[in-house]
Amino acid sequence: MTYTRRMVNLKNVTSDGVGTAGLDWPNALEQHASRLEAARDAILQRHASGQDPYLGWIDLPDGEVLGEVQALAAQYAGEFDDLVVLGIGGSSLGGLTVLTALQHPYHNLMRERPALRVHFIDNVDGDVITGLLEVLDPARTLVNVISKSGTTTETMAAYLTCKAWLQQHVGEGYARQIIATTDPQKGILRPLAQREGYATLPVPPNVGGRFSVLSAVGLLPAALGGVDVEALLRGARRANEAFRAGAHDNAILQTALVNWLAGEAGRNILVFMPYSTRLRYLSDWFAQLWAESLGKHKPGGGHTGTTPVKAVGTTDQHSQVQLYREGPSDKLVVFVRVDAPDRDARIPNAEPNEPEMNYLADAPYGRLMNAELVATAHALAQAGQMNYTLSLERIDAEQLGHLLQFLMLQTAVVGELLGINAFDQPGVELGKVLTYALMGRPGFDQQREELRAAGVQVD
Ligand SMILES: O=P(O)(O)OC[C@H]1O[C@H](O)[C@H](O)[C@@H](O)[C@@H]1O
What HAMAP family does this protein's entry cite (predicted)? Predict the structure, then answer.
């Protein structure tokens, strides 16, 4: 992925559709260029001060933890077949995105696998957790429990299940098969891991979960799954470098502007739609990044945030696009295009006597995919529905690393334009606390009484 205008096709931004959203491109860029650069500079200055409690993710591409991750991965490779990752939200979606994009699409079904199979447990669904353990070989399974805070209920429940399973089946040696990735100081998991003798990796205190994909959180599962993690970081470094360019040559700032203006113009929904099955979890990862970063109380009253919708092309073209074209003009649609698939897969001319199907004969799948994307983007623009396209040359570790960092930087800039803290998530906390109260965790008696008084059944 080169960091040029080519990567971001802002062509449709000039369409009538965008005009109706009050976005007049490139005049909007002229008008807001200095504001964008000021937002970027404010982020970089806070980061350079070394005092900011949230911006550690900007340094992750420099790979401080890379050596440790690679050493651990090398130590375990060959000895194990499966890795079970226990985590939720930012402690799961990054790794899932990277592995789904970069492993063989059917890696888990291959007879001879070049790397471990990686399974993500990110819910308290006992059927799924115990169902997975039923089919894994405990002697050849590693468990990576990941929690920035070291306390998250879902992850702790899965950890207890996996530890008990390993203890039961492999006995004393179980501790060798558990790796804990967590905050260096805070939470229950760190002291517990030390007591048990688990290998540990850090989540830097100044890196929030949804910004942690390029820390040990995403890197260890990726490395064990055979991903070129150095290339992933290299691509992210390119995004960091390109972030410093002036607004006219800076796709991160430009797309941040389009998103911000769309929101200001009442386009309250952001549809994120990669045209690639391999990138389907990028939509999930991005949805958390966007929603938790930008859905906030405004400092002076009111609310901010556009609602992310996860989609994948072409699949959701056949379930959602009707609404996006003829429904209300309350959306911005972001497409992700892959110029060249890895395989030169073509559609065979298997029905030479069917003239109606001849247009498909010998067509590359990649051409069909991108024709569908262009057709949809055009159809939306024609109906006044705002959209733009991010383009990758191909799906490889370097381009994906670039795109992930691009999207994190873009989100940070939108947060700055909105005048909010894009790096906390106070709105999620109450639900966690009330869950503790309902489950009878010590120290939450008062909340338990409040729930009872509000008519909630607590026993
Ligand atoms: O990594 P953890 O501390 O376990 O947190 C996992 C997730 O839990 C929370 O509910 C937060 O809202 C997310 O931002 C976070 O990624």
Answer: G6P_isomerase
ipTM given for this complex: 0.99
The pLDDT, as a whole number, for residue 7 is: 41
Contact in structure between 255 and 413 (CB atoms under 8 Å): no
Give the Å distance between the CA of 6 and the centre of ligand 1. 35
Alpha-carbon distance of 212 to 206, in angstroms, equals: 10
For ligand 1, mutation pick of 154, 428, 433 (most atoms within 8 Å of CB): 428
Residue 449 has pLDDT above 50, yes or no: yes
432 is catalytic: yes
Query: How far apart, in Å, are the Cα atoms of 146 and each of 17, 80, 132, 289?
Result: 43, 19, 18, 18
pLDDT digits (tens, 9 = 90+) for 122-138: 999 999 999 999 999 99
What domains appear along the chain, each with residue ranges and CATH number? 8-44+233-418 (3.40.50.10490), 57-227 (3.40.50.10490), 428-459 (no CATH)
Residues whose beta carbon lies within 6 Å of some atom of ligand 1: 88-91, 147-149, 152, 155, 209-210, 292, 425, 428
Residue 152 backbone dihedrals phi, psi, to 5 degrees: -55, 125
- For residue 318, indicate whether it is catalytic: yes
66-125 tens-digit pLDDT: 999 999 999 998 899 999 999 999 999 999 999 999 999 999 999 999 999 999 999 999
Average pLDDT, integer, range 39-51: 96
Among this protein's residues, is 292 annotated catalytic?
yes
Q: Which atom of ligand 1 is nearest to the CA of 154?
A: 4
N- to C-terminal Cα separation, the chain: 55
Catalytic residue among 104, 297, 432, 450: 432
Q: What pTM was computed for the model?
A: 0.95
Q: Is 434 exposed, middle or buried (0-12, 13-18, 19+ CB in 10 A)?
A: middle
Torsion angles phi and psi, residue 231, rounded to 5: -65, -35
Model pLDDT, residue 378: 86
Q: How far is the CA of 137 from the centre of ligand 1 (A)?
A: 29
Would you say 160 and 129 are in contact if contact means Cβ atoms under 8 Å apart? no
Atom of ligand 1 nearest to the CA of 87: 4
* The predicted structure's pLDDT at residue 291: 98
- In angstroms, the CA 361 to CA 232 distance is 36
pLDDT digits (tens, 9 = 90+) for 179-212: 999 999 999 999 999 999 999 999 999 999 999 9
**330's tokens:** 């309350």
Instruction: For residue 394, give every residue at least 6 positions away whose Cβ sits within 8 Å of its Cβ, in sequence order, or none.
Output: 338, 339, 340, 341, 342
